[in-house]
Specification:
InterPro entries: SQR/QFR_C/D, SuccDH_FuR_B_TM-su. Keywords: Heme, Iron, Membrane, Metal-binding, Transmembrane, Transmembrane helix. It is found in: Membrane. This protein is mostly helical. It has one domain: Up-down Bundle (3 helical TM bundles of succinate and fumarate reductases), CATH 1.20.1300.10. It contains five helices and no strands. The radius of gyration is 24 Å and the shape is elongated.
Length: 148
Amino acid sequence: MTADTIADPRTPLAPRRKGLNLEKWGWLFMRGSGVLLVVLIFGHLIVNLVLGEGVRQIDFAFVVGKYATPFWQWWDVIMLWLALIHGTNGMRTIVNDYVTHNGTRRVLIWALWIVAALLILLGTLVVFTFDPCLGVTPDSSLWQMCQG
């Protein structure tokens, strides 16, 4: 067969590589996390913006009340983790599609995952160590609540 002809459709494919297929698992993760993110985000929006007094209810006390329960802490952490990993995997795909130099592609992908890991770490730390009484002084409106 010459270079200017197309292979017969029934020509056997090249042998498949053995081992873990990361691209397949990345593709599956994007579909699953996308569906789960839609549920998590709409649940978040309904609770925060539709139920109760709407956007007027969102203040520091509202956040304190939500983060006082492990359910909402885990809801937000799962949403944070999935959104960051989903977005980073999407950016990785774009870098793979458009960056042709192998060294540059490798550096950009490492930078993406390092930044995502840092944001996941910091976000998780904020959610689970959130303390509304940290730095409260006697002239603050939270002083009474934090004394009990």
